[in-house]
Amino acid sequence: MKKTHWYDYLWIWTIVYFVLGFFNILFAWLGMIDFLVPVVLAVFGGNKWFCNHFCGRGQLFTKLGAGCKCSRNKPAPRWLSSGWFRYGFLIFFLAMFGNMLFQTYMVAGGARSLKEVIQLFWTFRVPWGWTYTAGMVPDWAAQFSFGFYSLMLTSTIIGFFVMFLYKPRTWCTFCPMGTMTQGICRIKNRERTRERSWIKYNS
Fold first, then answer.
1. Is the pLDDT of residue 193 over 70?
2. 124 three-state secondary structure
3. Is the overall model pTM greater than 0.85, yes or no?
4. Contact 184/39 with Cβ under 8 angstroms?
5. Which helix (H) or strand (E) holds 56?
6. Do 51 and 58 touch, CB atoms closer than 8 A?
7. How far lies 54's CA from each of 9, 123, 174, in Å?
């Protein structure tokens, strides 16, 4: 029987995150943990430990897709895991993240006013007007919260969609963070290989 670890329950964190943001958008900042930790582990550890053990969304897709039988469990199309799609999707997501930061910067500079709106797929507005009371924090911090929560919610809905159509963790095959950390790990492993070769050659 597989030994259970504390991090096997991080799927609960994913649910808690979206519930908290539903009632107060400022909790969206907590999602930065899922952005920073994978990069730190990849840069300093040269591995995808986060994706394999700490990703609460991946665990949630497994729980619902495999555990609750919410997935058709069909093989995903090959193009979803192809290099051109994964890196293209990463570039697209980084562009959306960059636009979100730009909007935050514009609000911070006073060029634009705070837009208290959550958008799905960067298009459809979600009428959650109770999620924030103006003046609680600087407008730029609230603007970031709305944008980041929209990004996290949109990506999770996409993950649920492909979970239902294909295998439970199909999202993981083209997840932007997974693609990014994989690229970092490859660079780190190449550097280690070169260092070992240099040491072996000069020893």
1. no
2. strand
3. yes
4. yes
5. helix 56-62
6. yes
7. 9, 30, 17
